[in-house]
Amino acid sequence: MEGAFMFLFSVLVIFIQKINTIELDIISNSKFLTEGDTLVSETRIFELGFFRPDKSENRYIGIWYKQISVRTVVWVANRNHPLPRVSPLVLKIVDPGIFCIFNNNNIIWSSNTTMTSPNATAKLHDTGNLVLMDEQEKMMWQSFDYPTDTILYHMKMGIDYSRGIEWRLTSWRSSQDPSPGEFTWEVDTHGYPENKLKQGAVVNFRGVPWRNYQVTGYIFSLNMTLIYNVVINENEMSREFYIENSSIISRFTLNSSGELQYWAWPEEGNKWKLGIKFPVDICDTYNMCGSYGTCSFDTRQQSCACLDKEKFVPRNQKGWEMADWSDGCVRRTPLDCINGSDGFIKYSKFKLPDTEGTWFNMSMPMDECEAKCLKNCTCMAYALPDDTLGGKGCVHWFSDLIDMRESPENARDIFIRMASSELVVLSASKKKDGANIKVILSAILTGVLLICFISMWYVRKKKNNEQSIKGGNEDLQLFSFTTIATATASFSTENILGQGGFGAVYKGVLEDGLEIAVKRLCTTSNQGIEEFKNEVICISRLQHRNLVKLLGCCIKGDEKLLIYEYMPNKSLDSFIFGENQTVHLDWPKRFDIIKGIARGLVYLHQDSRLRIIHRDLKAGNILLDQDMNPKISDFGLARSFGGNETQGNTQRVVGTYGYMSPEYVINGTFSIKSDVFSFGVLVLEIVSGKKNRGFNHPEHGNNLTGHAWSVYSEGRSIELMNPCLAESCHPNEVIRSVAVGLLCVQKNAEDRPNMSSVVRMLDGEGAVPLPTPKQPAFFIGRDLLDADLSSSSTNPAGSINGLSITQLDAR
């Protein structure tokens, strides 16, 4: 909503060019943007102004069609902040380019646009796009970047990675209430892009995978050609549409009932006419027929069938006969990738399956696409997603194919992996291989005895090693190296999630479809078998919703692998640091993350079977699951204690610059209060969006903790908050979080609270009076910059947040 405030000022500039005051009474002075006053596009297609939805007393700022008798709102600025019908409104210029709208001295809106100009102007284009420009007519903001429930021509859907903007539709709550409803139409970028219609987190309908194409046809006597353009690169993933005959007025709308509708207004008409809607029928219900099942629908009934009755059979035959298709289908003949005898069969009359979790390369020729898929035993199918790119483009599926239906108009060729016995035609090379099977078997049998002898010796050695690693934990799964290599496409560089001094972290998919993160320790890393065993033993015995789950491990020769649950949103640092990342996490979610991390530390410090000190708590080691819940990760440097032990000493200081407590770095003394210190730094980083290490305030030169102390001491804690949180923040929670963070980073360890007290403080909502923090340690560690860093730590999501000290003599 930040741009909504910018256009108010810009519109005022258009009509009140010479006003220099910093406070304007919109009602009594300018009479602008009150009910009845509007801004109109050049050819009077669209209009901007105040409106009231049917039967509602609330006012909103919006854009609608000017020359249509039925007022149809296509964009709403303040959908979360309705304006009372009778109330004085004041626009104040707080700083050059930053504005607030006040209602009786209460802020209704505020802006935080980084691009500002004292001579900004606004224009409402005939496309319905409200654009804010500087004096050189450079765009500073546009309404098309903040769609509500309607797509207009040339409006994009997708993600602009360079600016951190996501273009998606959100339904109105009702026809009288434009606030965000429960339905969204958004792009899924966890694979090749496609749009999904969701109700909350539940997918109701999936569009076809993106491609450049045009559709020509008649809709209620109108000859229309819809053209879709797709952009997929490192900066942007987007799709836009327009109509060849631009004089036709039409729009896509996501209504409050969860239907995506296409409407058009005939030239001589007096009402909107519905052209098409999605979902179209029951077969559009997401994943109606399960894996490898397809849905067909006629006027009599809907039914599911296996993709190919000759090659697939129902997984649950009894349920299938009773019209329970949820279990889907399976191959009649299992795959035999190990022996290299699989191949592909082309299917041509179906909508491509769900592309979530797929891999794609838009410059790869189809022959390379097939060869790459064939070499990877987890690759279940491949396809050319877009036939307008000269035969280039490749998508690989790695799990069961779901959400397919017969769809001649949206059909694309897909090549599905099958066992060799199911292939209609065998290549000549396959036949030749078959003729030589006897020779190969003879050679294999010759070496059987030798192999058995070596295997017995190896199994005995491996068993002894595994027993040492498991440490009596029978719940820990030991994976074979072959299983993990297959899941990660032989540790393909394309699957790397992150890289650190300890090695790389890879994304993988097991045969049952489970996504995993694999931490592969580098053979040259200083993290050896002891650190490996330490992480396995520590985390495998810990069970908490705010700790990452270790699924198992693998040892083969010099190879040491840790297998974790996969965290789709990776790590916290990628969301809170950087100008383009801060928009993704509003204040309520950040506060939930702070409290989740605190609860995880309470478990480690006092509620688990072992008392665990993490020793490397940082933003890069906080992973975020699909719902953005935080999980503490990377226990390679952790220490466990028994009985009443709470601290220890070391000659090997480990951790990350900016997060380590002063007593730990200087004396090598670590305790649960070391983690408390790290947590305090992390809280201040989450609130501010700034890294403690590397932050240097231009006025007083303090690092982040020093700056936080400065604003807290002067009663200005709210100023530490990242400005992007202005709309969503609860000031009392922000101020309380800053105070808690400062309590945790106090210089003396005994002054810091324990984590159970921190949880109570955070949950207090003002009821629990907070102690007054003492001046924190402004320790930055600049005298350690020349120290020998032997490696850096990484986490299962692969995000790296600064360097971790893993071997440094205590001072």
Walk me through what this model shows.
- By secondary structure, the protein is α+β, with helices and mostly antiparallel strands.
- Among the domains are: 146 residues, Agglutinin, subunit A (Orthogonal Prism); 138 residues, no CATH class; 233 residues, Transferase(Phosphotransferase), domain 1, CATH 1.10.510.
- It is built from 16 helices and 48 strands.
- α11 packs antiparallel against α13, α11 runs antiparallel to α16 and α13 packs antiparallel against α15.
- It is flat.
- It starts with a helix and ends in a 6-residue tail after the last strand.
Outline of the structure:
With 811 residues, the protein is of the alpha+beta class. The protein has 16 helices and 48 strands. Among the domains are: 146 residues, Bulb-type lectin domain (Agglutinin, subunit A, Orthogonal Prism); 138 residues, no CATH class; 233 residues, Transferase(Phosphotransferase), domain 1 (Orthogonal Bundle).
- Tell me what the CATH architecture of the domain at 573-805 is: Orthogonal Bundle
**What is the CA-CA span between the terminal residues?**
51 Å
Global outline = flat
User: Which strand-content bin applies to the residues?
Assistant: 25-35%
What is the structural class? alpha+beta
* Radius of gyration, in angstroms, nearest whole number: 30 Å
* Annotation, overall tally of beta strands: 48
Estimate percent helicity.
Answer: 10-25%
Continuous helix count: 16
